[in-house]
Amino acid sequence: MRASLAALALLGVAHxxxxxxxxxxxxxxxxxxxxxxxxxxxxDRVASFSDGRKAIxxxxxxxxxxxxxxxxxxxxxxxxxxxxxxALNATGAVxxxxxxDTNGTPLQNPNDSSADGKGGxxxxxxxxxxxxxxxxxxxxxxxxxxxxxxVAQHLRYPNGVYVDGDTLYVSEHLHRRVxxxxxxxxxxxxxxxxxxxxxxxxxPVGDYPEAGPDGLERGPDGDLYVCLxxxxxxxxxxxxxxxxxxxxxxxxxxxxxxxxxxxxxxxxGAFENLAPPLRGQxxxxxxxxxxxxxxxx
Length: 297
What we know:
Layout: H1 3-13, E1 17-24, E2 26-32, E3 35-40, E4 45-50, E5 53-59, E6 65-71, E7 74-79, E8 84-88, E9 94-98, E10 113-115, E11 121-125, E12 137-142, E13 148-155, E14 158-164, E15 167-172, E16 177-182, E17 193-197, H2 198-201, E18 212-218, E19 224-229, E20 233-237, E21 243-248, E22 253-259, E23 265-270, E24 279-285
Antiparallel strand pairs: 1-24, 2-3, 3-4, 4-5, 6-7, 7-8, 8-9, 10-11, 11-12, 12-13, 14-15, 15-16, 16-17, 18-19, 19-20, 20-21, 22-23, 23-24
């Protein structure tokens, strides 16, 4: 961890509640039926947490799962390392797989997902994580019937995705901005809009060259909370895209966020993103730490 990131993280560590201190590059937290589910990319497994206990829900060697979403009567798992989607039924068995879209275009490295409340799921497929790479990022829509089609293309590493009613938010990581789309009745998307340009709202923290927005979710207060990967903090954005607050967390490589029933935020992240073991943790951020405070611009 770089010194500047360590200093920022220490501001919030004293009030942290660690849910899983031994998670292997955790991502994609999801609250479902009273349990917190999350993927562990570094261990090729999906875990759940409830009543103070962790359980392994599913594992597959080489998958590198990064996100989970409800689909059908079970869960949709995104495999980042072995590019594809895996649908698990209610018993946890594999019911279906996708390696390419309906046009036969192979998936690159699925990353994040968000259910639309109508049986469908939006998925980011970012491409190569490099500012110098060719722009191949896309957003796909998996219908409740299982059709997988591209609904947005030519994005520079679309990372986090979140459905908010009839609006879709996408974090375009390598442009360091959050995009907004109107969702049409058939699941397609309207024209791309820039909801927030983080370059103009806040200076990067630390010296990680590819820092940018990752997972995001609307909080119970109505604001949008965006994880900044490589900066060890969550930024809270108002309905107009303005910066409301910056919230430090322990892990510099912060991947995603989900809100629990009591208004707490559960964040996933790692301390290391290159050399195994990719040690990370799942942290609970109490509602009091999310309230209005210094923006740390």
